Amino acid sequence: MACLAAGIAYPLIILIAIVATANHFILDAVAGAVVCGIAWNVNGALLNLLVVEDWFLWILRLHKPEKGVLDWDEGEYGEKVEGKGVVGYA
Fold it and tell me: Is the pLDDT of residue 89 over 60?
């Protein structure tokens, strides 16, 4: 829900910044909104193409790396660091 609110608020804040700074490129904001709207509506169709991507990678004998969560215990300078991060592939 917060992600949806941020996704709606961000373009509005950018539009306010464009108008407030007298940067009269409102058409850029309109074009950005159109691109976001198209992406929102086409995302479902693009997800259906994952099967084609898997088939293509199988033909090339390649595989997608699997995302993983890496644990680390040491910092850059040897200090103890606790935490997890999605930094790479397992």
Answer: no
